[in-house]
């Protein structure tokens, strides 16, 4: 049915590529392109012979629009899946526009260099006006709306689990369960244990930036920002058990607040163990999470990049990680004039993911929705010109695809609420 260029070959991309190869009817041809082509070639070798999907590989620096345009023009894909890093979102969108190809990604744009004065002045203005200080926000990619509309192309943003599936759960709740939704709590629980004192489950740089930033939530039409990790709750997660979770800023709150304006409060919580928090605090205190280069023995070193080099590669956690993830949304609202609550969630087992695709559940829960989102675009179910997030599409075919391709969801109509 289609031909897809996949950019990136890390933890998440590897799962998405495995799943595309299980779904050869839709993904007839894929090209895996990344900065380090050896990783693409190794994955191609592993998968060839197990799949009907024709696989090619290419080397590309996705920070360079001209390189991207040459690759896209030569390969002529129906869709570009950006599963590299959020730093590359804008260059890949530019190249897709130049070549007339649909685009999708799994995380919204943030700059690699947060000291860039041009970016910083726009960022500081946004902090003042919007009221949250995360480095990432949708404004950069929403700015492409008119260009994608005029070109008749679709850009699907943030199609992993959270963002991604969580917004499909919101669209489902709005379509099938509630007349009006009052509150949404997104709960991301990782009950997995990899045996290391400290490691991140996906790209350490992106992950540590996210969790060391101030928390924020949406309430009564505006952002409320709080110090990092200052709001803590305990929750008893199905198939995982009791865990401490902390309020974080998270990108889907921004698009949900826009697309579901009736919702009075939207919060995001993520579970963290004490060891993770202690390590993170210490690393932050000594400056290891900084993105500002420091001079060291005649070289410029970016502390967080150096830290990344020391930490275990998230892709290597697969064989060691045991336990389950439980990610979902708790809704309160009204149906036929009566108050009601509902909890839609998925439970995913780290070891089962490893047996199936050689990765732990964090990469799995992101890579499977990426493949399912790509399938929505290749099969024409989610195509409309412009730039959209997942809650703006019909959730039904996507949630059916998740059931079929490894992330079945369930509904609890009597959930314990988070205070
Ligand atoms: P990894 O660091 O494991 O992989 C990133 C990949 O991108 C690597 O293959 C890397 O190549 C490649 N890459 C980086 N820079 C460039 C470049 N300039 N040109 C070409 N390729 C490049 O990251 P993850 O797989 O953990 O994460 C991938 C994405 O998924 C991120 O955007 C992350 O934020 C997002 N994510 C989304 C989630 C969700 O639920 N929505 C959850 C988890 C992650 P190389 O091998 O050379 O370094």
Helix content: 25-40%
**Largest beta-sheet details:** 9 strands, mixed
Q: What would CATH call the class of the domain at 165-359?
A: Alpha Beta
Number of helices: 15
Number of strands: 18
Helix/strand layout:
Blueprint: E1 2-7, H1 11-22, E2 27-34, H2 37-47, E3 54-59, H3 65-75, E4 79-82, H4 89-99, E5 102-105, H5 117-130, H6 139-142, H7 145-151, E6 154-157, H8 165-177, E7 180-190, H9 204-211, E8 215-219, E9 222-226, E10 232-237, E11 241-247, H10 251-259, E12 265-271, H11 274-285, E13 294-296, E14 299-301, H12 303-310, E15 324-335, E16 338-349, H13 350-357, H14 361-378, E17 386-389, H15 395-405, E18 410-412
Parallel strand pairs: 1-2, 1-4, 2-3, 4-5, 5-6, 6-17, 7-12
Antiparallel strand pairs: 7-15, 8-9, 8-12, 10-11, 11-12, 13-14, 15-16, 16-18
Helix pairs in contact: 1-14, 3-4, 8-15, 14-15
The protein binds NADPH dihydro-nicotinamide-adenine-dinucleotide phosphate.
């Amino acid at each position: 049915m289609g031909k897809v260029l996949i950019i990136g070959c890390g933890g998440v991309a590897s799962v998405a590529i495995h799943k595309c190869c299980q779904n050869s009817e839709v993904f007839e041809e894929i090209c895996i392109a990344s900065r380090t082509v050896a990783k693409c070639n190794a994955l191609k070798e592993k998968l060839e012979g197990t799949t009907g999907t024709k696989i090619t590989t290419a080397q590309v620096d996705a920070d360079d629009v001209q390189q991207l345009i040459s690759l896209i023009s030569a390969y002529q894909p129906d869709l570009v899946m950006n599963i590299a890093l959020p730093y590359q979102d804008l260059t890949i969108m530019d190249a897709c526009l130049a070549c007339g190809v649909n685009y999708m990604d799994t995380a919204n744009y943030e700059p690699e260099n947060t000291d860039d004065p041009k970016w910083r002045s726009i960022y500081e203005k946004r902090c003042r006006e919007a009221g949250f200080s995360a480095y990432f926000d949708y404004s950069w990619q929403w700015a492409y709306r008119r260009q994608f509309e005029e070109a008749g192309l679709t850009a699907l943003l943030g199609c992993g689990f959270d963002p991604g599936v969580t917004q499909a759960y919101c669209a489902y709740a709005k379509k099938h369960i509630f007349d009006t939704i009052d509150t949404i709590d997104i709960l991301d629980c990782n009950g997995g244990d990899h045996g290391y004192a400290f490691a991140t489950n996906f790209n350490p740089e992106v992950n540590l930036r996210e969790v060391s930033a101030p928390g924020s939530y949406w309430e009564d039409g505006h952002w409320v920002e709080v110090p990092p990790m200052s709001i803590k709750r305990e929750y008893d997660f199905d198939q995982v058990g009791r865990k401490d979770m902390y309020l974080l800023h998270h990108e889907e709150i921004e698009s949900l607040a826009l697309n579901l304006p009736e919702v009075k409060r939207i919060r995001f919580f993520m579970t963290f163990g004490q060891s993770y928090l202690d390590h993170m605090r210490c690393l932050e205190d000594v400056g290891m999470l900084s993105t500002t280069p420091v001079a060291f023995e005649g070289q410029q070193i970016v502390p967080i990049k150096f830290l990344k080099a020391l930490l275990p590669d998230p892709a290597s956690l697969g064989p060691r990680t045991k336990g389950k993830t439980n990610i979902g949304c708790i809704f309160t609202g009204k149906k036929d004039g009566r108050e009601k609550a509902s909890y839609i969630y998925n439970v995913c087992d780290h070891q089962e993911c490893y047996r199936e695709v050689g990765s732990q559940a964090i990469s799995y829960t992101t890579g499977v929705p990426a493949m399912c989102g790509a399938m929505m675009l290749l099969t024409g179910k989610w195509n409309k010109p412009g730039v959209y997030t997942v809650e703006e599409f019909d959730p039904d075919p996507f949630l059916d695809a998740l059931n079929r391709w490894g992330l079945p969801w369930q509904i609890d109509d009597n959930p314990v609420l988070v205070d």
